[in-house]
C-alpha cells in the first residue's frame, strides 16, 4: 500500500525534536548549530530557525525555562539579568526598613555575644566595628562571615583577656582550606560556661574591604551590582550620619 502523502517522517522527527528542546530549554542559536551538524543539510537551516523561534516564543508566553524551574524547586539563589521595573523607584534604604535589624560585633568580642547572635539570627554576615578613641566615633572594620565565626567556636580560639592577636597566631590555628569551607552549624558547637566569658579577636578573619553603597541607591542598581560582581553581602550606609552614631545595614 502506498503512503497517502509524500511527507518525510525523518524531517518531522528532527523538527519536532528541535521544537521540544527550544520550548523547554529556550535555546535557539546553539540548537541551530547542533541540528545543522546532525543533519549535515544546510537547506534545513531556515525551517529549523523558524521552528525554534516559534517554539521559544510560545514557551516564553506560558512559563520560564526548565532550568529556571529546577532552580526554583531546589531553592537555589538566582538573579535574572534584568531588574524588575518597580525596583527603579525603590531605594535600598526603603528596602532595609522591612528587614530585621543588623547585628554587629566589636573587633574583640565576647564569646557569649557571638553564640547568642548565631543562635538567634540566620544572618550570614556581621559587620565588625571598632572604637576610635582619638575622635570618639565608631568606625567600620569590615564584615565577618557566619561560617568563620562557627569555625572559631569549634576551634575554641579564645582569649582570656581582651586584646588583639598577632598574624602568626592566626596562621598557626587556621589554614586557608579551613577558612574556605562554608559548612557548619551552631547547634554542633559546644561552649562551656567559663568559655562564654572569654574573648575572640575578629580582626584577622574580617573582610576589611566589603562593598558599601549609600541608602539612596536604587534597588535596581544594587541588584545589578550583586549579579555582575557576584556579591553575597553589601553594606548600606546612611547618607548623613551624626557624630558618634553608627547606623549600618547589611543586604
TrEMBL record:
Matching InterPro entries: CBS_dom_sf, Cl-channel/antiporter, Cl-channel_core, ClC
| Lineage top rank: taxon | Eukaryota
Question: Quick check: keyword Transmembrane in the entry?
Answer: yes
Q: One GO cellular component from the entry? A: plant-type vacuole membrane
Compartments where located: Membrane
CDD domains xrefs: CBS_pair_voltage-gated_CLC_euk_bac
The annotated topology with respect to the bilayer is: Multi-pass membrane protein
| Keyword Transmembrane included in the entry's annotation | yes
Query: Quick one: signal sequence residues?
Result: none
Which molecular function terms from Gene Ontology are attached?
chloride transmembrane transporter activity; nitrate:proton symporter activity
Swiss-Prot/TrEMBL keywords:
CBS domain, Membrane, Repeat, Transmembrane, Transmembrane helix
Instruction: Show the stretches that span the lipid bilayer.
Output: 42-59
**What PANTHER family does this protein map onto?**
CHLORIDE CHANNEL PROTEIN, CHLORIDE CHANNEL PROTEIN CLC FAMILY MEMBER
Q: What is this protein called?
A: Chloride channel protein CLC-b-like
Q: Which organism is it from?
A: Trifolium pratense
Amino acid at each position: 500500500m502506498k503512503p497517502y502523502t509524500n511527507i518525510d517522517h525523518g524531517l518531522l522527527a528532527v523538527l519536532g525534536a528541535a521544537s521540544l528542546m527550544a520550548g523547554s530549554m529556550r535555546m535557539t542559536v546553539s540548537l541551530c548549530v547542533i541540528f545543522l551538524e546532525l543533519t549535515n543539510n544546510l537547506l534545513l537551516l531556515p525551517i529549523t530557525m523558524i521552528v525554534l523561534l516559534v517554539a521559544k516564543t510560545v514557551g516564553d508566553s506560558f512559563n520560564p525555562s526548565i532550568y529556571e524551574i529546577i532552580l526554583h524547586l531546589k531553592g537555589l539563589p538566582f538573579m535574572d539579568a534584568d531588574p524588575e521595573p518597580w525596583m527603579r523607584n525603590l531605594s535600598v534604604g526603603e528596602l532595609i526598613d522591612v528587614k530585621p535589624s543588623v547585628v554587629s560585633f566589636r573587633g574583640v568580642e565576647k564569646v557569649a555575644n557571638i553564640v547568642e547572635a548565631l543562635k538567634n539570627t540566620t544572618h550570614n554576615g556581621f559587620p565588625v566595628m571598632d572604637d576610635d578613641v582619638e575622635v570618639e566615633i565608631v568606625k567600620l572594620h569590615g564584615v565577618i562571615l557566619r561560617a568563620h565565626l562557627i569555625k572559631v567556636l569549634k576551634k575554641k580560639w579564645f582569649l582570656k583577656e581582651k586584646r588583639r592577636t598577632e598574624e602568626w597566631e592566626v596562621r598557626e590555628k587556621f589554614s586557608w582550606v579551613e577558612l574556605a569551607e562554608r559548612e557548619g552549624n551552631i547547634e554542633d558547637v559546644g561552649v562551656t560556661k567559663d568559655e562564654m566569658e572569654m574573648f575572640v579577636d575578629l580582626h584577622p578573619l574580617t573582610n576589611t574591604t566589603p562593598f558599601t553603597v549609600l541608602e539612596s541607591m536604587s534597588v535596581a542598581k544594587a541588584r545589578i551590582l550583586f549579579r555582575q560582581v557576584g556579591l553575597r553581602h553589601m553594606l548600606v550606609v546612611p547618607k548623613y550620619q551624626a557624630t558618634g552614631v553608627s547606623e549600618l545595614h547589611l543586604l
